[in-house]
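task queued by scheduler; priority normal; single chain, no ligands, no partner chains; default sampling; output format set to structure tokens
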Amino acid sequence: MRELKIAVPETGKNAVNYLNVLRYLQAEPVNIFEGCNITDFDGLLLPGGGDIHPMLYGQDIDGSTEINEELDQKQLKVLDCFVKEKKPILGICRGHQLINVYFKGDLIQDIKTANQHKRENDIDKVHNTLVKPCSWLEEIYGSAHIMTNSAHHQAVRHIGTGLKAVQHTKDGIIEAMEHETLPIWTVQWHPERMCFAYKRGDTADGSEILRYFLKKCSMSSF
């Protein structure tokens, strides 16, 4: 069976962990930014990174940092291509938020409980989360509770059209979503830092998220 070809619209240090995990799982990650010729791609992975410019969801800057407007536009363009072709999409951290913005949702620019969620001294926080029944996460892990890492100061506020929240923290932060009709899944946390060389004993195995996504990509390609 051929390798699955996964678009990852990011370069540099923000892309390294995602590329490594995909290769470990025998997929071919490819940086893509320009054009909509996605015929040869099996899926899209939108990775973590800096904050999205709040003008894209109707707000002024009020707590957002590390904004890259050029990256926002390029990733939104690629996302639009995959949505229109109904190809599988996985959003992680920034990708989770970007997908929400694409579907006309908005974000909390700096959550009040950010100290419980953002990295400290380059170390991810860890917290318990509640998973909704019959969701993609329950299908993967078979549990109503999942321990995950956490490394963010922003969060989804109003959910975009067609999306639904399927995972929350005890302080109400939306940690994962799925689309009602399209093959789109998102997590606020970082599964690529919860598996293989980065596997940790205090969280779930993050590789299961990537395996699920690649399985869906494989199913949609034939």
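post-processing summary
- Residues 69-85 form the longest helix (17 residues).
- The mean pLDDT is 94.
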